[in-house]
Amino acid sequence: MSQLKTITRRTFLVGSTAIAGGVAFGTYLTKKPHDNPLAENLKNGEASFNPWVLINEEKITLVVPHMDMGQGVASMQAALIAEELDLDFGQFEISFGVPAAAYFNTALASEAAPFLSADESIPAKTMRTLMSSVFKIMGLQVTGGSSSVPDSFFKLRMAGATARETLKKAASLKTGVAVEQLKTAGGHVILPDGNQLAYTELAKLASELKPLHNNELREPADWRLIGKPMQRLDVVEKSTGTLKYGIDLAFDEMLYAAVKTNPRKGAAMQSYDDSLAKKMRGVSHVIAVTNGVAVVADNTWRAFKAVDKVDCEWSEAPYPAEQADHWAEVVASFIPERLDKVWRDDGSITWSKDSYEIKSEYKAPYVAHQPLEPLNAIIKVTDERVDIWVAHQMPRFAQQKVASITGHEEEQIYLHNQYAGGSFGHRLEFENVLLAAEIAKQVQGKAIKLTFSREEDFAQDFTRQIGMASGLGGVDNGQVVSMDLSIATVSSSTSQGKRLGQATPGPDKQIVEGAWNLPYAIPNFRVSAYRVPELAPTSSWRSVGASTAGFFADCFLDELIHLAGADPLAERIRLCQDEVVKQVLITAGELSEWNKPLGPNQGRGIALVESFGVPVAEVVEVTQTDNGIKVDQVTVVADVGQVLDPVNFDNLVKGGVVWGLGHAMNSEITYADGKVQQRNYHQHEGMRMHQCPQIIVKGLENATKIRGIGEPPIPPAAPALANAIFAATGQRIREMPFNKHIKFV
Amino acid sequence: MEINVNGEAHEVDVEDDMPLLWVLRDELNLTGTKYGCGIAQCGACTIHMDGLAVRPCQLKASEAKGRQITTIEGLGTPDALNAVQAAWIEHQVAQCGYCQSGQIMSAASFLKFKPNPTDEEIDYAMSANLCRCGTYPRIREAVKTAAAKLRGEV
Amino acid sequence: MKSVIKTCLLSLFIVNSMAAENSIGDKTVLNEPEAGSVSTQQGLDSWSRVYEVASHPRCANCHVGNSPYPMWSGPSFTKTQRHGMNINAGASRMGVEYIMCSTCHTGSNSEADHGAPGVKDAWRLAPVEADWFGKSSVEICQQLRDPKRNGNRTYQEIASHLGHDVILHWAWNPGGEREPAPYSLQEHMDDIMLWGVAGMPCPDDINSNLNDGVSYE
Q1: Angstroms from C76 CA to nearest CA on chain B
Q2: What's the number of domains chain C is made of?
Q3: Residues of A in contact with B95 (CB under 8 A)
Q4: Which of A264, C66, C170, C210 is an S-S bond match for A674, by CB 3.0 to 4.6 Å?
């Protein structure tokens, strides 16, 4: 029995705020709630129970505060509310939350605390609480860090329960039947005689009541939606071309913009010549913007074409122009002055010169996000207000960025969050928002749609961190006894923080994430982080630090296990001290039939990395063919505490494996002359279908905390593949992308 | 010039060399056809011309004159799904969904020639459509289900 | 199924008929040297220029013999590899089995970096017999003069086919940053004629003549 199911009900107070023309019910409280953003615009007879539920006489709207970038959060969050509110899919509309402090992300904050996820010590808890408060004060409404599920799981169900009980109270007042005798189902309050009252009918009356909070949440055994396959709310629209992404919206008299900014990221434009561009058909404006130039035209293609014809003089890059110099800086960072922190130091590592038995070096390159929907934003600036339609993971910051450019008060910036055609961390950045605001400030009164060409998007993408690791190790009597891993990367957190205007004091945990928290009791185990001074700007790339450190750590452990002559799975299980993680390993072994013999050109590798609190084991099987390595099968086992929707879980895990493998195999970003050399997908394509293996997925629910699954499947993919290639060929690949060293089918 | 899209004739005032993609998206507001790369690398814009898959980012508007253009909106609608779309919904293929219009249009064209494709054949037909979310395993299954639907078996 | 193929062939026909109207971009003439006016050595010199053309990526990438896989090689690519995206042109040579070449290679030639080239004709692989990719000068030469493997053409017919086939003209006018095939279409045709009049000599004829005079295998 999962401990999750026996966890005591948390005291989530769901309060209320009286407002003119109705009542905003159930505002989420810790001590003092943020204002309910729905309350401002309530019409007569509308009731908003909290920032997440709005009912009027016509319809029920559930507000989903996180951005849906494909992870299915809109459906998941709606389902959590609907579970307690007794709504069926099809009975409500959803709306993305407006930027508001009330939607602050409670879960991301706790993960930011520098403690192991499983660490429940007093300092760890205290720090998480403190971090949470800081995030609340900042009003940090973030989608990211695989935090949507943990952020929502309790509070959205609580929100649904408050609305339900208040509607029952209203029904009781209306009919004279005691609340205890009322039931709810399918968007109705059901009377003992079988008569039904629609929630929408009760909205007006309910709006006059004090909300009923402190409700008991339902037992898992009673769940109708959670844990069962759901049909995603957007799947029909996404299969018929009818879902409007941000890039698809259109307004009357809308203009279209394109930009070209210095491909040496962050450096200025010295001068430009727009004489050709200005004369081109449909072009209404050519405007200088920060570090570049924008064209406004009457069609996207005309804008693209014209901006291409603007001749620009660019300044030199504020970082090394050539890739080799980036690597040189990384190599030079394993020195005491650049030691960021020793994150783990179990037993005692005492190497005298050459006393170690093995030394290995690993490399991880820059990689781009490049979701398929290019960066875009539609913006309209008038004296009174600014409207911006954009898919953004941090809408509150985006709002501030716009305000800082247009000079409006933040309250005058209306950000309409949109479905995103992927993100992978890309939409945590602000380039599209900033440039759109700069353009619209100069061309006011009309909606302007800014679209990045794919080439511009590649050129300006803030990549994953670049890094290296050096491992020293020793074995004894068939066992791994010493592992000393030094990791040096640039700090993507610091780079990102700078653009956010946020200081990031202290060591950067992302440098070693996935390595320092290996759940193994290696007798002598040290993980040290070295900080490479900032080179090219970097950002959060799906799974962040664990995508590099996880690769380094698990691959090096695999080398040690082979050196010891042990079985890769058995030795990991032996070393594992955490029962939840151990079960993940054991299950992965069973499902993948680890001990079943393979053919002569085949190999099997396993890796386990824990990130975002989720231990994930992957077993990769490969065949060496005449045309190169073929990835045949991947078995994935992850423990997230509670699988909310098995279909979406399966899809996200498979997608994570494809993401992790594809980039590890095929993709890197490199610089020459200060510019990114990869301009479009043919030079950075991740994975295409013909390389996609069979993927077997199993979710376990032994962990005590519920976790998200958007990112954790990525980190183990690369090391499991490298370990499998070693098993099949005897070749150790220690650098991504692997296709620099071996050919793939 | 006159362009026939989804059975309707449209008069558009565009340059001969404007890619059909931008005529569809910006002039006709048929936004189910997506811009992804502009150089036939991603397949997000795939449509049908006279019933066959084609990438309008590589097709000058003038080339569409006198041809029957079908976009995802013309393939089927939420109320009247095409078999391929129905299979995509059944398998819940989409994550972000941005590539799926193109995936569906490619599959619909492919299945006219290969009514009962193997996994390998699907991989040949569909690898030119990029999905950054990694929905490939589901696309494979959905193509097979769509094929069965088109054969009248399910 | 039949109607589909009909539609497909019909669309190709439309493309082809458009091709007939528009293909006069390259005005070429067939210059026939007098019989006996070209020495074997001059013929071999001409051949070596023909070979430069045939083995150039603009031509060879689609002359892949039995393989259904077009190639990506030459200065536009960082390394020699199979056409990306798992493209397989199939036995039809034009991708009908999986994804038609014309899906991306339309009647418009993309000038963009790595955009899809196209001509007003169905983009496709060359016939299986014309197996040039990675082949030596001798191998290509022997194929081109072998009626069983050159479409039963005389050298005049080879040269004149060059003048009429718009997909071949693209090699000299590939657009964008693509490196064109060497010389010009007219020079290439002239070289074929010179080589033909010289008796279609191939570089290792001395050796192969010792073995056989008929089969050029």
Answers
A1: 14
A2: 1
A3: 70-72, 422, 651-652, 655
A4: A264
